[in-house]
Amino acid sequence: MGSNQPTSYDLPMRTTFGPELRQWRQLRGMSQMELATRADVSQRHISFLETGRSKPSREMVIHLGRTLDVPPREQNLLLSAAGHSPAFSETSIDDMPGVRHVLDRMLEAHEPYPALVVDRRWNMVVSNGAAGRFVGALFPEPPAWITPPLNLMRLAFHPDGLRPHMVGWEDTARALYRRLERDVASFPSDSGLRGLLREVREFPDVESLEAGWSEPSADDLLVPATYRVGDTEISFLTTIAIIGDAHDLTVAELRIETFWPLDEVSARRWDSLFGG
Predict the structure, then answer these.
(1) Which CATH number fits domain 17-81: 1.10.260.40, 1.10.101.10, 1.10.3720.10, 3.30.70.1450?
(2) Which residues of the chain register pLDDT less than 50?
(3) pTM of the predicted model, to two decimals?
């Protein structure tokens, strides 16, 4: 059963607040002076917090976490390191019928094209009928390694996953790999995400993707992918959206992935295979 109260869930043992604050400041590429200026506090106070000479209030931890753009789950860990209780609750999606209803309506509205929702570890939470038909067409007999919950990163990188059904897999995979690395950096306490990245790196040809590495750009918001369905090729652009300003960890970490036909040819081919 879920809970609507702040919980410690699977909080790992943390160091004191000072080293955690320093780590996040350095991850964001800020000096103490820059963080102090953005947070409207003195550099001396930031220094004292990092060295442990001052203990932050609950409000100060939350304020610095927001200033550093720390994800809500990691803000809870900062609070724990400072000796405070978590600020964000974590509730099972099954215990939030209103949220589930909204998600279902959003996915249904995207028909006849695929749309799905994943959690922070890229496990599928819910999908629309078009996504189910698409996956079913690619995998009439699902491989034994595909077990619930379906993990989209594993599906994309596994040599027997989407790879044989894609044209130009390397370009799409490179963009996904970059996203996964950013997720690991955003959730440094998440051993599950780190394990997923290690697993992906062990798949054939994945290490070679870094050869064409480039800095992230606005184009990362739209990831092109071309799939073979039988003898037909269909090209999509995929977009990722999040639910902003969510006060529950489950909701804050959900991502809505939608598939859009890249052109009219792909739209007609999709309609001919799956109906418009």
Answers:
(1) 1.10.260.40
(2) 1-13, 213, 218-219
(3) 0.83
